[in-house]
Every structure is written in structure tokens, then in C-alpha cells.
Design a protein that fits this description.
single chain; 305 residues; alpha/beta; Spore Coat Polysaccharide Biosynthesis Protein SpsA, Chain A; eleven-stranded mixed β-sheet; two-stranded antiparallel ribbon; 28% helix
Length: 305
């Protein structure tokens, strides 16, 4: 069975500052977080990669990573831009694309098989890719009448940054690890008093160090992209008077799927520690984590040899 890894790498990365954070080097060989994610995905059985990027970073992206990866696994490119359906006008001051739903939609013509979506600047751990590939390979999930989706369920304590607040999809599951509710939660931080805070002021029973959160790692089937198109247009119509700041993200859309009972979402719990680069100050700690993993032989010294 063919399976595809979709890598969202079109983010502006404004909090990171100068440079393109998705291309930051993690080790002495110049490998990026993307390299390690693709290594883990390929080992798990994924056989194609679709990079979602912006046209303005295409040259740098291909030079630093894309051309190298294309020698190892099939690679295709989708381009996220500001373009909208003809009925809508892009606001003059708009500079950012329209969020992660729009990003996945950019890959519509390239993904015709079961697929896994990840962020380019997040390291997810070695084991989750195997779990996702098994989910996609399960005939019961492929043939179910209701769209099947899987999400990686990380403990919040394993996904925080020491250098600023983060945004996470706070997830509530039932006893069978089926997602019941997901709340896109902003400005999550750990105070000196040990308390977790957020812009939404979620209660501690929902938001605590053991809370399960989404890290934008979703496995599903081609029908999902058709739904992205349908729901993105609904979102645009609903927000047509606020398009200058509108952003439609995957947890929000998947929450709507739950409300309308058109999908079943399975939480695949993991104890792996997330490594990511949200702020420029996150770079050195991330590099140190990869140094430790290489020292512990979690990965070969040169992953592509």
C-alpha cells in the first residue's frame, strides 16, 4: 500500500526571527528536523513526501534539503499562497497564508493515497510513525463508512518551550481513546508557580501538565482533502468580513467534524518528547537534544549513508 508523508513547511515563522526555521541544522552533518522526520517515516513504511512550501523559499528549501531528500524518497511540491477562490478578495495588508487547513488543501492534486500530515519544525519521536503507518494500513480504517483520522496524543509537559508560550490543541478523549473534543489553545505557558496558563484561561482540569495535546500530526485518507476544500470555503464565507486576520487551522476543522459526526478520530498516545523550534532561543536546546540522541545511538551518525 502506498502512503504519503505531507510536510507543512510554508509557515512564516515570525516568532523565530531572521532565517527560515524549518531549515535550521541540528547536527554536524547539516541535517534538519525534517531529515529526521523523513528518516523515521521512511523506516516506518512511508514511500513519498509532499512538501508544502511557499514560492519565495523554494530555492533555499531545495538547496538545503529538497534536492538531497529526492535522492532518497519520491518528492513532490505543493505551494501555499495567498490565493483565494474567485468569490473572495485578498486583503491588501495580508501577508500570511490562511492556516493549516489551507496548507493541506494546497496538496489536493498530489495526494491520492492514505497520508500523514506533520509540521516541518517539529520532531515527533521515532515510535509514532510506526503507529500511524499501521493505522493507515488497517483495512477497517480504510473501508469505514465514517472518515477515520488518527492524531498523536502528546502530554503537554513534553511539548512546552522554555523560551515562550506555545499553541496546542488540547484534546479530550473517551475510555476508548476516541477524541471527544479539541480546543485550539493559545499562549500556553508554565509559570514560576508551576501553574499552566493560557489565553483562553482553561480550567486546570482541562489544561495541566498531563493534558493530552495535538501537535498537528494527523493520519487519514484522501477524502479528508475534499473536506478541507468544503470546510475552507464555509470558513471563508463565515469570516468574509474579517479576512485580514482570518486563519483556519486543522484542530478547528476537526472539532467541526466531531460536532457534525462525520469523522471518528483515534488518539494514539505517546510518551515521546517533542523537540521544536518556535523561537530562535529554542535552536541550541534542540541541537543539544539531537546530540544526545546521536550519542545514545538512537540514530546512526549519518542517517542518509
Amino acid at each position: 500500500m502506498k502512503t504519503t508523508l505531507v510536510v507543512m513547511a510554508a509557515g512564516i515563522g515570525s516568532r523565530y526571527g531572521a532565517g527560515i526555521k524549518q531549515l535550521a541544522k541540528m547536527d554536524d552533518n547539516g541535517y534538519t528536523i525534517i531529515d529526521y522526520s523523513i528518516f523515521d517515516a521512511k523506516k516506518a513504511g512511508f514511500d513519498k513526501v509532499v512538501f508544502i512550501i511557499r514560492r519565495d523559499i523554494e530555492e533555499d528549501f531545495k538547496e538545503v534539503i529538497g534536492d538531497r531528500i529526492s535522492k532518497i524518497i519520491d518528492v513532490e511540491y505543493a505551494y501555499q499562497s495567498l490565493e483565494l477562490p474567485a468569490a473572495y478578495e485578498v486583503p491588501q495588508n495580508r501577508t500570511k497564508p490562511w492556516g493549516t487547513v489551507h496548507a493541506v488543501l494546497a496538496a489536493k492534486d498530489l495526494v491520492n493515497e492514505p497520508f500523514l500530515v506533520i509540521n516541518a519544525d517539529d520532531y515527533y519521536g521515532k515510535n509514532v510513525f510506526k503507529d500511524f503507518h499501521e493505522f493507515l494500513d488497517d483495512a477497517n480504517n480504510q473501508d469505514a463508512s465514517k472518515l477515520q483520522i488518527a492524531m498523536a496524543g502528546y502530554k503537554l509537559k513534553n511539548t512546552l518551550s522554555d523560551n515562550g508560550t506555545v499553541t496546542r490543541g488540547v484534546s479530550v478523549g473517551d475510555q476508548d481513546n476516541k477524541l471527544v473534543k479539541i480546543i485550539e489553545t493559545h499562549e500556553i505557558g508554565l509559570g514560576e508557580d508551576g501553574k499552566i496558563t493560557s489565553r483562553e484561561n482553561l480550567d486546570s482540569d482541562l489544561l495541566n501538565l498531563e493534558s493530552i495535546v495535538s501537535m498537528n500530526m494527523w493520519a487519514t485518507f484522501p477524502r479528508f482533502i475534499d473536506l478541507c476544500e468544503e470546510y475552507f470555503e464555509k470558513y471563508l464565507e463565515k469570516n468574509k468580513d474579517n479576512l485580514e486576520k482570518a486563519e483556519y487551522v486543522l484542530p478547528e476543522m476537526i472539532g467541526e467534524f466531531l460536532e457534525e459526526d462525520i469523522a471518528e478520530i483515534t488518539i494514539l498516545p505517546t510518551n515521546d518528547k517533542w523537540i521544536g523550534i518556535t523561537y530562535k532561543e529554542d535552536l541550541a536546546p534542540a541541537q543539544e537534544e539531537f546530540r544526545k540522541m546521536l550519542e545514545n545511538k538512537d540514530y546512526p551518525e549519518n542517517i542518509w549513508l
